[in-house]
Amino acid sequence: MITKTYPVFVSYWPEGSPHGHGLLVTDGSETMAEIFAQGIEGYAEELAEQVAMCGDQSHGHGRHHPKQEVERAYKMSVFQLLTKDFAAEWEEIQHDIKLYQKWGGQPPAMVFLPSADDPQQWHLMVPDQEGDPVLYELRKGIIDDILDPRQDPTAKPNQIGPGWTIGRN
What are the pLDDT digits (tens) for 24-53? Predict the structure, then answer.
């Protein structure tokens, strides 16, 4: 039986604080069963100690945390270890990295662009789950208040892909 491994981490960011604290519980070399066998309270104590020892002298941008924040950090890490789906979160992080690499940066949530054939007809481009662009035709007249690209003398249909390119002024 192959067991998938993934990093497990807990964090605490006090409300209104300029910084947070995090603890890498495992880099994926231990399973959640092994982490629970070792006792999650030890990890919670470690994060709480980080918060308690925080100060300007420790890493240059820290601050003194009152006892309530130290206690909240402890409780927050126990809560995260008991409830967080670390495997799903790790898969999501890996997926986001793949999309970022595919697009050469943050992929857009959506893009409105005029059709190359008819600039009065607009399309909505939305990346699918794999980051591939999917075009949807919009109902005519839905974005009439957006400028027709043909009104710009430097505009021309894209050579590659849908939409128009407008020259730099």
Answer: 999 988 888 888 888 999 999 999 999 998
Q: What is the rounded CA–CA span in Å between residue 67 and residue 65?
A: 7
- For residue range 127-143, what is the model confidence (pLDDT) as tens digits? 998 999 999 988 877 77
* Predicted local distance difference test score (pLDDT) of residue 107: 92
> How many helices (H) does the chain have, and how many strands (E)?
5, 7
Contact 22, 11 (CB under 8 A): yes
Is 81 found in the same domain as 25? yes
Whole-angstrom distance, CA of residue 123 vs CA of residue 121: 7
Is residue 3 in a domain? no
Give the mean pLDDT of 101-106.
93
Number of domains in the chain: 2
Q: Which residue range forms the structural domain that includes residue 90? A: 8-103
Q: Based on the domain organization, do 63 and 94 belong to the same domain?
A: yes
Structure tokens at 97: 């990295």
The structure tokens listed for 102 are 């595919």
Q: Are residues 70 and 115 in the same domain?
A: no
